Every structure is written in C-alpha cells, then in structure tokens.
TrEMBL record:
Entry GO CC: plasma membrane
Name of the molecule in the record: Olfactory receptor
Residues covered by region (Disordered): 316-340
Membrane topology according to the record: Multi-pass membrane protein
Location in the cell: Cell membrane; Membrane
Keywords: Cell membrane, G-protein coupled receptor, Membrane, Olfaction, Receptor, Sensory transduction, Transducer, Transmembrane, Transmembrane helix
Primary location group: membrane
GO BP term, pick one: cellular response to lipid
SMART domains recorded: 7TM_GPCR_Srsx
Origin superkingdom: Eukaryota
Record-annotated membrane-spanning stretches: 25-51, 63-88, 100-122, 143-165, 199-224, 236-257, 277-296
Gene Ontology terms, MF aspect: G protein-coupled receptor activity; olfactory receptor activity
Amino acid sequence: MSAVNDTNFNSAVFLLSGIPGQEDVHLWISVPFCLMYVISIVGNSIILFVIKIDPSLHEPRYIFLSMLAVTDLGLSIVTMPTILGIFLFNSREISLSACFAQLFFIHSLAKFESSVLLLMAFDRFIAICNPLRYASILTPQRIAKMGLVFVLRAVVIIFPLPFVLKRFRYCRDNVLSHSYCLHQEVMKMACSDITVNTIYGLSTAVLTVGLDLLLIFLSYVMILKTMLNIASQVECLRALNTCISHICAVLLFYIPVIGLAVTHRFGNSSSHSLPMVLGYFNLLVPPLINPIVYGVKSKHLRERIIRVFVKGQRKTSRAPANPPWRKIPSRPQIWRSAKP
C-alpha cells in the first residue's frame, strides 16, 4: 500500500489556472503580460546597471533601491515561466517538485522585499530625523549586515515549507486558482491535516510582513512629527518629496499582499476572480511600477540614467576622425614664426 501511495505521489501534478472562461483569447492576453515582464526586467536591470557604474549613487538610499530592484527582478524571473507558459503554450501542468521550488522562491523573495521596504523606511527616518548622523549610522558594512540578516530571515522561515508539503498526500483535483504556486493554496490541496501549516504560515506572516508594516508605520509617524516641527514650509515639502516614491512602493506591495492573504483564508472558495486579480497584481505590478516611480521621482537617478544612455549613444554614433578606409594625402607642413 505504501508503494502505491508513493507512486501516486510521484506521478501527481498540479494544474495551474490562467483566466477562467477566456481560454480562447489567452494568446492575445499574453501580449500585455509579455510587455509587463519586458518592462520590469529591463527597468530593474537599468537601475542596477546605473547604480553599479556610477560612484555618486553608492549611497545608502540607492543601495537599498538596488536591493529592491534585485528582489523585483527575482520575482519576475520566478513567475515568468509558468504565467507565460499558460498564456502562450497552454501548458498548465507543473510537477510537485517544481511547484514547491517556485513557492519557496516566491515567498522568500516576498519576505525579503518586505524587509527591504522596512530598511528604506529606516533610511528615510534617519535622513529626516537625524541627518547629521546619517553617514555614520548607515555605513556600507552596516547595510551589508542588515541585508544579510534579512536574507537569512526570509530563507530560514520559508525553508521548512516545501519539505512539510512534500510529506502530504494529494488526492484531490489539484487545480490551483493562480498561474503560479503559493503555500496557502497548495496546502489546501492535501488530503492530510494541515493545521500545523495553517498556524505556521499565519505566524510567519504576522511576525515578518505584519511586523515590518508596523515598523514602517511607526517610522512614518516619527517622520511626520519631525516634518511638522520644521519651520520652513519649503523644507517640509522637500522632505516629504523624498518619501513619495517609498510610500508608493509600500502601498503597491502591502495592499495586494494583505488582500490576498485575507481572501485565501476567509474568502468564499467558489469565487476566484478577486484572488486571481490580487495574485496577478501582487507579483506583476510592483516590479513594473517601482523602477518607473523611482526613475521619475528621483532627479539624481533620472539624470544619471539619461547621461549614461546619451553618452553611450554619442559614442556609437560618432565616427572616427580618420577612418582606415580613407587615406588622406600628406601635405608638407608650413612653419610660420610668430614674427616675420
């Protein structure tokens, strides 16, 4: 009996879902998805490239932005094969091992992005509330240590989930409501007791994403209190302008994450439209919008991006003064003295 169960487990697959009822136009729907992925990958790659080659951007604010770009780039790469596979090739099947690997990277990167947004809020808090100690507090060594701690936190928290899911038996239809794998949905496909997974998933969400959001809120309360004490209205608006990009990134990330968690745990199982929309918004929109928002709002970064591409265009369009195929006849040099 055990051998039969193992065989059923090893041969089992999950079926991913695209947009129900729109299977005939999936090929046309793939066009905006492809554009979104291209813009996300190119935009975040440009930000990483410009920050790397420009020494003037090696500041804490832009180092945190590069962390955010790496995370968004990772989320795009992890979800792209399954989402485009459904809409382009109608490939819905995914093996259990591939599904567990995908959900591990999705949840790990999402946890780390939440941590990066917290670090960016801390950066704005120090820059506005304690600007004289900004350089001494956010040193490169300290930034590297904080980034490493949050990476380890995300990996350690999510690492047990694939192994726990692998021990379950899946005897249902195994049809997922998303184009990718999520832990809160995969565990419902199991024919085993998932109480431990439910408690563990809820606890980790509260202690990571929930705690990060609370600390971000408290940091902005302190920032707002400091800005209200600033006498000059111009300086207050200038300080607020430096936070707009981060506020947009926070809203784009946390609103769909919270909405998706609530609908998966307390929503009606018969309605899949809201979780589907929130799922696509959660993983596709932030990597698309973040580089655009930061590129538009950050004047210094925008100028560096324009300078890099304009300089590169000038180099490629400028022809050599004396092409090798053109021979200039030599002329005798005429020397003239300054005075006759």
